[in-house]
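Weekly structure sync, notes
Attendees: PL, DS, HV (note-taker this week)

Item 1: DUF4328 domain-containing protein
DS walked through the input record. Source organism listed as Streptomyces caniferus. Sequence as pasted into the shared doc:
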Amino acid sequence: MILLGLVIGADLFALWQGNHSYQLLGKLIDGLGSVTPQEANQADSLYEASGIVQMATTVATAVVFVVWFHRTRVNAEVFAPEYHVKKRAWAIWGWVVPVANLWFPRQIAADIWNASADGKSRSRALLNGWWLLWILNLIFGRLASQRYARAREAEEIKGAIAGLMASDALNILAAVLAILFVHRLTRMQHEKALRGPVWQ
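Item 1 (cont.): predicted structure, written out as tokens:
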């Protein structure tokens, strides 16, 4: 949860710096003010630095998240082995296998959620909302990054930065829901473990 918070911080930094670069490009395009080469270079350097920070926090968080996810899968198998459609290894490989990573982790997360619930009906709206935002950002972020890499003219760069900023905003929302998901699922498993086995 702390690392997800750092991801949000990195995204906010990228948003702030992206907005600064966006404003500078707007000045150049509209001719409403002068932008020195030093200002432009500094803005580029800071925006590039924000991307590096984003990458570093994302990779660190992804590693810890997958470890946590696998552990919750192991716990859930103890609670209710009959709920699980996929083998335990898919809790890790499901995130990295192309195409399968678009729905395998969501299915495994749903199985973990069901096995960890206390028997009462629990809405999976939080899980579904997080996964929807995650997938949208995965797709939208990839398209925005490709557009930024291809941009050459000031107008194109400005539009690409707007796309990257929208992707950052989506990622922030996804990270907030991920924090809530991690907290809720961890608490559900903790409470179920404290109750001990239920004898039928």
